[in-house]
Protein backbone atom coordinates (compact mmCIF):
# COMPACT_ATOMS: atom_id res chain seq x y z
CA UNK A 1 0.00 0.00 0.00
CA UNK A 2 2.92 2.36 0.64
CA UNK A 3 3.91 2.11 -3.03
CA UNK A 4 0.39 2.99 -4.19
CA UNK A 5 0.23 5.96 -1.79
CA UNK A 6 3.59 7.24 -3.06
CA UNK A 7 2.48 6.87 -6.68
CA UNK A 8 -0.72 8.85 -6.00
CA UNK A 9 1.18 11.61 -4.18
CA UNK A 10 3.80 12.03 -6.91
CA UNK A 11 1.17 12.01 -9.67
CA UNK A 12 -0.87 14.68 -7.90
CA UNK A 13 2.21 16.89 -7.42
CA UNK A 14 3.47 16.61 -11.02
CA UNK A 15 1.03 19.12 -12.56
CA UNK A 16 1.82 21.80 -9.98
CA UNK A 17 5.56 21.31 -10.46
CA UNK A 18 5.36 21.27 -14.26
CA UNK A 19 3.13 24.34 -14.40
CA UNK A 20 5.75 26.40 -12.56
CA UNK A 21 7.67 27.19 -15.77
CA UNK A 22 6.57 30.12 -17.91
CA UNK A 23 7.41 31.52 -21.31
CA UNK A 24 5.83 33.17 -24.32
CA UNK A 25 3.98 31.03 -26.83
CA UNK A 26 3.53 31.85 -30.50
CA UNK A 27 -0.03 32.96 -29.72
CA UNK A 28 1.26 35.49 -27.14
CA UNK A 29 -0.25 33.68 -24.20
CA UNK A 30 1.84 32.48 -21.23
CA UNK A 31 3.29 29.05 -21.97
CA UNK A 32 3.63 26.68 -19.05
CA UNK A 33 6.05 23.81 -18.72
CA UNK A 34 3.04 21.54 -19.26
CA UNK A 35 2.38 23.20 -22.60
CA UNK A 36 6.02 22.93 -23.71
CA UNK A 37 6.11 19.24 -22.69
CA UNK A 38 3.09 18.47 -24.86
CA UNK A 39 4.35 20.49 -27.83
CA UNK A 40 7.67 18.60 -27.84
CA UNK A 41 5.73 15.33 -28.01
CA UNK A 42 3.25 16.62 -30.60
CA UNK A 43 0.38 16.26 -28.15
CA UNK A 44 -1.09 19.40 -29.72
CA UNK A 45 -1.81 18.55 -33.32
CA UNK A 46 -3.51 21.86 -34.01
CA UNK A 47 -1.91 25.07 -35.23
CA UNK A 48 -0.34 26.77 -32.18
CA UNK A 49 -2.08 30.03 -33.17
CA UNK A 50 -5.49 28.38 -33.13
CA UNK A 51 -7.70 28.99 -30.05
CA UNK A 52 -7.60 26.28 -27.40
CA UNK A 53 -11.19 25.18 -27.77
CA UNK A 54 -11.40 25.04 -23.96
CA UNK A 55 -12.83 22.36 -21.76
CA UNK A 56 -11.57 19.09 -20.40
CA UNK A 57 -10.78 16.30 -22.85
CA UNK A 58 -11.37 12.69 -21.85
CA UNK A 59 -9.82 9.72 -23.59
CA UNK A 60 -10.20 5.97 -23.28
CA UNK A 61 -7.44 3.57 -24.30
CA UNK A 62 -7.86 -0.21 -23.90
CA UNK A 63 -5.09 -2.48 -25.12
CA UNK A 64 -3.91 -6.08 -25.34
CA UNK A 65 -0.44 -7.36 -26.07
CA UNK A 66 2.78 -8.98 -24.88
CA UNK A 67 5.49 -7.98 -22.41
CA UNK A 68 9.01 -9.37 -22.44
CA UNK A 69 11.40 -9.09 -19.53
CA UNK A 70 12.23 -10.06 -15.98
CA UNK A 71 10.45 -11.49 -14.02
CA UNK A 72 8.34 -13.68 -16.27
CA UNK A 73 10.18 -13.70 -19.61
CA UNK A 74 7.15 -13.43 -21.99
CA UNK A 75 3.55 -12.95 -20.91
CA UNK A 76 0.24 -11.54 -22.07
CA UNK A 77 -1.24 -8.26 -20.87
CA UNK A 78 -4.64 -6.57 -21.06
CA UNK A 79 -5.34 -3.14 -19.64
CA UNK A 80 -7.45 -0.02 -19.98
CA UNK A 81 -6.54 3.62 -19.36
CA UNK A 82 -8.70 6.69 -18.96
CA UNK A 83 -7.07 10.07 -19.50
CA UNK A 84 -8.22 13.55 -18.52
CA UNK A 85 -6.55 16.57 -20.14
CA UNK A 86 -6.98 20.31 -20.12
CA UNK A 87 -4.73 22.14 -22.52
CA UNK A 88 -2.13 24.38 -20.85
CA UNK A 89 -3.08 22.97 -17.46
CA UNK A 90 -2.74 19.21 -16.96
CA UNK A 91 -2.87 15.82 -18.64
CA UNK A 92 -3.17 12.71 -16.48
CA UNK A 93 -4.19 9.11 -16.97
CA UNK A 94 -4.96 6.13 -14.77
CA UNK A 95 -5.54 2.49 -15.57
CA UNK A 96 -5.80 -1.07 -14.43
CA UNK A 97 -5.04 -4.39 -16.05
CA UNK A 98 -3.89 -7.97 -15.73
CA UNK A 99 -0.85 -9.81 -17.01
CA UNK A 100 0.42 -13.35 -16.80
CA UNK A 101 1.99 -16.49 -18.19
CA UNK A 102 2.56 -19.82 -16.49
CA UNK A 103 3.14 -19.09 -12.79
CA UNK A 104 3.67 -15.31 -13.06
CA UNK A 105 0.38 -13.44 -12.79
CA UNK A 106 -0.38 -9.97 -11.48
CA UNK A 107 -2.95 -7.23 -11.23
CA UNK A 108 -1.50 -3.95 -12.55
CA UNK A 109 -2.37 -0.39 -11.52
CA UNK A 110 -0.98 2.60 -13.41
CA UNK A 111 -0.93 6.37 -12.78
CA UNK A 112 0.64 8.59 -15.39
CA UNK A 113 1.28 11.89 -17.06
CA UNK A 114 -0.08 12.10 -20.63
CA UNK A 115 -2.96 10.37 -22.35
CA UNK A 116 -4.97 10.05 -25.56
CA UNK A 117 -3.87 12.52 -28.24
CA UNK A 118 -4.40 13.41 -31.89
CA UNK A 119 -1.56 12.61 -34.29
CA UNK A 120 -0.64 14.18 -37.62
CA UNK A 121 0.44 11.46 -40.03
CA UNK A 122 -0.73 10.36 -43.48
CA UNK A 123 -4.30 10.33 -42.21
CA UNK A 124 -6.05 11.67 -39.12
CA UNK A 125 -5.79 9.32 -36.17
CA UNK A 126 -5.39 9.21 -32.42
CA UNK A 127 -2.68 7.72 -30.28
CA UNK A 128 -1.44 7.52 -26.72
CA UNK A 129 1.60 8.94 -24.97
CA UNK A 130 2.50 8.81 -21.30
CA UNK A 131 5.13 8.55 -18.58
CA UNK A 132 3.90 6.47 -15.67
CA UNK A 133 4.28 5.01 -12.19
CA UNK A 134 3.08 1.43 -11.93
CA UNK A 135 2.26 -0.96 -9.09
CA UNK A 136 1.88 -4.73 -9.46
CA UNK A 137 0.14 -7.08 -7.06
CA UNK A 138 1.22 -10.65 -7.78
CA UNK A 139 -1.65 -13.11 -7.41
CA UNK A 140 -2.30 -16.82 -7.72
CA UNK A 141 0.49 -19.34 -7.26
CA UNK A 142 3.19 -16.68 -7.45
CA UNK A 143 1.64 -14.92 -4.47
CA UNK A 144 3.33 -17.48 -2.21
CA UNK A 145 6.82 -16.26 -3.17
CA UNK A 146 6.42 -12.88 -4.84
CA UNK A 147 4.48 -9.99 -3.27
CA UNK A 148 4.46 -6.83 -5.34
CA UNK A 149 6.47 -4.55 -7.62
CA UNK A 150 6.87 -0.87 -8.42
CA UNK A 151 8.18 0.63 -11.65
CA UNK A 152 8.43 3.76 -13.77
CA UNK A 153 8.22 3.82 -17.53
CA UNK A 154 6.85 5.30 -20.70
CA UNK A 155 4.25 4.27 -23.24
CA UNK A 156 3.77 5.59 -26.76
CA UNK A 157 1.30 4.55 -29.43
CA UNK A 158 0.07 5.68 -32.82
CA UNK A 159 -2.99 4.33 -34.56
CA UNK A 160 -3.46 0.85 -33.15
CA UNK A 161 0.13 0.03 -32.20
CA UNK A 162 1.67 0.76 -28.81
CA UNK A 163 5.09 0.32 -27.22
CA UNK A 164 6.02 0.34 -23.51
CA UNK A 165 9.28 0.34 -21.60
CA UNK A 166 9.66 0.25 -17.81
CA UNK A 167 12.21 -0.23 -15.03
CA UNK A 168 11.59 -1.05 -11.40
CA UNK A 169 11.91 -3.61 -8.64
CA UNK A 170 9.87 -6.59 -7.43
CA UNK A 171 9.74 -7.76 -3.83
CA UNK A 172 9.60 -11.36 -2.67
CA UNK A 173 8.05 -12.76 0.50
CA UNK A 174 11.49 -13.09 2.12
CA UNK A 175 12.07 -9.36 1.66
CA UNK A 176 14.55 -9.59 -1.23
CA UNK A 177 14.20 -7.06 -4.06
CA UNK A 178 14.93 -8.00 -7.67
CA UNK A 179 15.28 -5.82 -10.76
CA UNK A 180 12.23 -5.49 -13.00
CA UNK A 181 12.72 -4.63 -16.70
CA UNK A 182 9.96 -4.91 -19.31
CA UNK A 183 9.51 -4.05 -22.96
CA UNK A 184 6.01 -4.44 -24.36
CA UNK A 185 4.08 -4.30 -27.61
CA UNK A 186 0.31 -3.80 -27.68
CA UNK A 187 -2.66 -3.32 -29.94
CA UNK A 188 -4.48 -0.24 -28.62
CA UNK A 189 -7.70 1.65 -29.29
CA UNK A 190 -7.18 5.31 -28.37
CA UNK A 191 -10.67 6.83 -28.27
CA UNK A 192 -11.21 10.56 -27.63
CA UNK A 193 -14.49 11.25 -25.86
CA UNK A 194 -16.22 14.63 -26.02
CA UNK A 195 -13.54 16.41 -28.09
* Helix/strand structural class: mainly beta
Major β-sheet profile:
8 strands, antiparallel, barrel
Portion in strands: over 45%
Helix proportion of residues, in percent? 10-25%
Terminal CA distance: 35 Å
Structure annotation, total helices = 2
Question: What series of H and E elements makes up the topology?
Answer: HHEEEEEEEEE
Shape: elongated
Query: Runs with pLDDT <50, length 5+?
Result: 6-27, 44-52
Total beta-strand segments: 9
> How would you write the strand order of the largest sheet?
1-2-3-4-5-6-7-8
Rounded average pLDDT: 78
Rounded radius of gyration (Å):
18 Å
Folded structure, characterized:
The protein is elongated. The protein has 195 residues and is mainly beta. It is built from two helices and nine strands. Strand 4 (104-119) and strand 5 (125-138) form a beta hairpin. Helix content is 13%, strand content 56%. The model is unreliable at 6-27 and 44-52 (pLDDT under 50). Strands 1-2-3-4-5-6-7-8 form an eight-stranded antiparallel barrel.
Give me some keywords for this one:
13% helix, mainly beta, 195 residues
Concise summary:
13% of the residues lie in helices and 56% in strands. It is mostly beta strands and 195 residues long. The model is unreliable at 6-27 and 44-52 (pLDDT under 50).
